[in-house]
Amino acid sequence: MKLVGCALVSTLSMFAAGCGGDDGGDDFAPVAETYAANVYANYSDTVAKAEALKTAVDAFIANPTQATMDAAKQAWLDSREPYLQTEVYRFYDGPIDNPEDGPEGEVNSWPLDEVFIDYVVGMPDAGIINDKTTFPMITVDVIKEQNENGGEANISAGYHAIEFLLWGQDLSDTGPGARPVTDYVMNDPAGTNQGRRRTYLQLVTQLLVDDMTQVRDQWAPDQQNYRADFVAGGKDSIRKILLGMGSLSGAELSGERMTVALDNRDQEDEHSCFSDNTHRDLYGNALGIQNVYLGTYGANHGKGIDDLVRAKDVALADKLKMQIAASVAAIQAIPHPFDQAIKDDTKRPLIMTAIQDLQTQTETTVEAATALGITINLQ
Q1: Domain boundaries in the chain?
Q2: Is the pLDDT higher at 17 or at 170?
Q3: pTM here?
Q4: Would you identify the CATH topology of the domain 28-372?
Q5: Helix (H, G, I), strand (E, B) or coil at 376
Q6: Which of 123, 131, 190, 370 has a Cα-to-Cα distance from 288 of 20 to 30 A?
Q7: 30 phi and psi, to 5 degrees?
Q8: SS3 letters for 220-266?
Q9: How far apart are CA 127 and CA 224, in angstroms?
């Protein structure tokens, strides 16, 4: 079923109006400061977990056993928890996704065509890893240059490339992928090109660490960086914050990540299809939106968008706060694994409820922006 209303496309055209001048700058500044501090804390946690993932991957490659493979998988799952809350910082050409050097495309692009990287059932020689003619050496430059080369699904880098290399295809109706550890055991007759696969996994994980470090550093305090301009940006910085909230809750989360999968009933359209971690993806995104609205992240508490809206319209602030809490709860109520819930007619209504809640909060986010003298048009 197709829903209409808020945006259901991932490519957005968003324009701000009514942002001239700096009226209300004294009110905007504490919110921008809190946001920047929380962004830095969130990205710092993301880098730390990515580094822990790299450590686990290196340990796995040094001694490939089922135990070390499972530890690397757990480290990947752990690394997603802080990262998913950062996705609300996208959509306004900030450090993560600015057109010049933002690394988002090689951090979290999906869906991923497995055959672009490695073998799949029925195609044992497929992918960069098994193509020694075109790619005689596996290097970080190869991984970067091939990312999205020839098509949006030709993903060679990022979280989901690592996910596929650890789990393999998800061919199970009840669980995640089950890539054999022999894929990484040198000279084991049960596998092929183990050395190239080992190199690929280590390099793509280090690339993730490097990319997230680059983004984190642009939000570091007391530097001549993006953060310095952002905290001095007045109303335009608030526009960017609202743009991130509305874009993620509408087009991206309720649309691309939920409605498409629900409509198609296809696990290939779920976000983390190899590990069956999509339920955490959805929750992390919803939590990130709530964090920004309330001005919180973990133990950090400060001025948020709620404070600005509340100063203009208490009822509107209460409504949006309640709607955001409802969407978080609705997402938590979705049974997992998500790839089975989208096919089960008894569970699909729970997904639809979450989608509708997200779309409602997106509409109210636009209302909140208007109350602050900001217009955002979501397509």
Answers
A1: 28-372
A2: 170
A3: 0.92
A4: A middle domain of Talin 1 (1.20.1420)
A5: strand
A6: 370
A7: -65, -35
A8: CCCCCCHHHHHHCCCHHHHHHHHHHHHHHHHHHHHHHHHHHHHHHCC
A9: 42
